[in-house]
Structure formats: structure tokens, C-alpha cells
Amino acid sequence: MHSSARYGGLLTDKYELTMLAAALRDGTAGRRVGFEMFTRRLPEARRYGVVAGTGRFLEALGQFTFDDSSLGLLEEFLDSQTVAFLADFRFRGDIDGYPEGELHFAGSPILSVRGTFAECVVLETLLLSIFNHDTAIASAAARMVNAAGGRPLIEMGSRRTHEQAAVAAARAAYLAGFAGTSNLEAHRRFGVPVLGTSAHAFTLLHTGPDGESAAFRAQVAAQGVDTTLLVDTYDVATGVANAVAAAGPGLAAVRIDSGELAVLAQQVRDQLDRLGATRTKIVVSGDLDEYGIAALRAAPVDSYGVGTSVVTGSGVPAAGFVYKLVEVDGQPVHKRSAGKQTRGGRKQALRVARESGIVTEEVIYPAGRPPAVDAWARTLTVPLVHGGDVVADTGVAALAEARERVASGLDSLPWEGLKLAHGEPAIPTRLVGGD
């Protein structure tokens, strides 16, 4: 895996460093603590979440340091003791968590971060910004993958979000089961398959009465017949005829980007078949989300291009994760704020399933004290960082494993848990033991 992302220590919020300064001054900075990342509830309309961002966070952790330029800025509001501490900062604690690609639910202890207060507190913003973004994207993408019923999806939303968020979104969508992305940086950095051919501009470039045909011939000459021709710049039926005339019946695919997609797809399929292009596939795009994809299940569509809805989490741009202190010197601590209570102590979780493999509940318990269950169950938490060293794979192979984990997780959900309609989480969460 190659990366050009830069994760300096200033990717944080000021209050984390002012807390650090106060803790260094009063002697509490070195107390051993445990923080946890979790959601109090799933976002509206979500029956499950897909953990994403683990690989990016573990990569960022090693780069989360403070250079001379950063320290110079911090001297504006921090005392010399705190600046000296940050000059030598490196996370040296332990982190356990759910593997990337694992499903999660309300209360799931996604990450457990342990070390001194000083080294754990400064990770809050970095950690939450990565996981809240990537998990929201992967969770939306997984709903789209399920709605597509096995047909491939292409992520093509780079122009609808921040340029660096676009790269992370492409990775998260691929993790959730998308076939690839249009984003070249995601291909370079994470090995995500890259896809794409042309836009309406290329057709419009070729003016004159034969302009569309000339554009198609030029594209085929450059890319061969194993390409996708965009047929809806003008009249769709004429576009299909010109596409087959330019490429022959061996044309790989045509794309429709506007109009009543279900009706047009059927008309295009009939026309392609009459022209002998029976193996030419139909790609559709144009403001699709999981509901639009589901509505096209009966149409002769072979694959989907999805942009804005996937890179914005399809209405849920953040997963809702929080990062809370749950343990100090081995003793549980609790937040009791109205509506924002936390349960103290480090926790782990089991996923319980029937013999068929369909999951029935998630059981959260005090770390190291798993309850007895009268069913098949597996532990969800795995080691990620030990003594500051990353012990989990973060490369291309790990991303492939995460894709498999998402697919397996979706297959394990009860059928009602996959519905797009609003409703209860796919499985209940049960808390046992603890204080």
C-alpha cells in the first residue's frame, strides 16, 4: 500500500491539548486509562453499521507526531512543559477493536484504547474523524450492494466531496462490496480497481451531424470494443444504434445517465438484442441511491454507477461514534449526563448465532469475563496495537479480507435486518455483568 496522506499531530482539536496541559500540571497525565469508541444508537434508518477506517487509522497513528512547525504554533497557547511532551510524542499504548469490515450495532465497543491519559486523550479527533467518515460511507455502500442483488456497483462520487474524502470514500465503498472506483488516487494508495471511460463532454466535442458517431468511433479506436459508450447525450435510441455501428455487436457496454432508467433500460436491451449485441451490458447512473437501485432490480440493468449518495453516506454523513473515558487505574468510571450516559469499564463482545449461521444477538461484557451462552458465538475484538506497535495487517490483503468480512456479515443477518425501511436494528444488543 502506498500513501501520500499526511497525518500530523495538528489534526486534532485544541481542547485535547489544553486538557493535556492541565493534566501534566496537576500530575494526572500519567494515570493509566481506558477509552472506548462506540455509538449510543445507530443512525436513523440504519439497521446495522459496517466498521471501516481501521486500516487508515492504524496508518495515521504512526504519523501522528508534532514537527518543529507544529510545535512553534502550539507555543502560542501551551506552556513549555506541554510543548516538550509533544515534541517527543508517540503513542505507546495498546488498542483492541473490531476487525475492519465487521458489522456493528449500538453500544458495540469498536475500539478500546489503553495507555496513559496523556497519550490517549490526544487521539480523540483523529480517531473519530476517520471512523465516523469511513464507517458512514461503508454502511451506506453495504445497503446499496445488498439492494443491487449481486450486480456490480462503481463508485464515481469524487466530484461530490472533498478531494481527500473522495479517496477515503472510494476505499470504504470498495470495502463494502463495490466493484471499483473512478478515483485514481484510491487505486494508487489502496489498490482499489479503477474504472471509467468517457463523459458527455467527449461526445459534445465532436460537432456536426455525425458528431456522436465520430465520438464513438474515436473512443473505440483508442480503447477497443471492450469499452462503455455513453448513449444518452442526445436521443437514446439513436445513441444505441450509433454505438453498435461504431463498435460492432461485440461492444462491452452502453451507459444511460438520465431519464426514466427502468423504462430506458428495457428499451435499450430490446434494441441491443435486435442489433445482435446480445452480450452488450447496460450500465446505469444518475443520482442513484440504495432505494433507486432497489427499484431497478427487475430492469435489465447489469451494473450501477453511484456518486453523490455513496460519498455522502446516503443521508448519514457520520456514523455517530463517540470516544469516552471508561476506566482509570483499573477502576470503571461512568458518565451520567442526561441522554449521554456511558457504562464504565473496558468491554468486549460476542456475536451469537444459530446453527444455520444466522446471528441472533450481540452480547457486550466486561473484558476478560465472557458469559456462558447456549449457542454458537465468536469473540469480535482482536488486537490492533501493542506497546505502540501496529500488530494488525493494514495492506491490500487486509482490505480484501475486510471485503469478505462484510459479505459474510451481511449473509449472516436475518432477512428482516436487510430491509431498507426504517425499523429496529437487525439484531438486539445485550449488556451483561459490569458495574
TrEMBL record:
Transiently phosphorylated on a His residue during the reaction cycle. Phosphorylation strongly increases the affinity for substrates and increases the rate of nicotinate D-ribonucleotide production. Dephosphorylation regenerates the low-affinity form of the enzyme, leading to product release. Residues 10-132 form the Nicotinate phosphoribosyltransferase N-terminal domain. One of its GO terms (cellular component) is cytosol. The keyword Membrane does not apply. Its EC number is 6.3.4.21. Signal peptide: none annotated. Residues 154-342 form the Nicotinate/nicotinamide phosphoribosyltransferase domain. Keywords: Glycosyltransferase, Ligase, Phosphoprotein, Pyridine nucleotide biosynthesis, Transferase. Pathway: Cofactor biosynthesis; NAD(+) biosynthesis; nicotinate D-ribonucleotide from nicotinate: step 1/1. Catalyzes the first step in the biosynthesis of NAD from nicotinic acid, the ATP-dependent synthesis of beta-nicotinate D-ribonucleotide from nicotinate and 5-phospho-D-ribose 1-phosphate. Belongs to the NAPRTase family. This is Nicotinate phosphoribosyltransferase. It comes from Mycolicibacter minnesotensis. The lineage of its organism: Bacteria, Bacillati, Actinomycetota, Actinomycetes, Mycobacteriales.
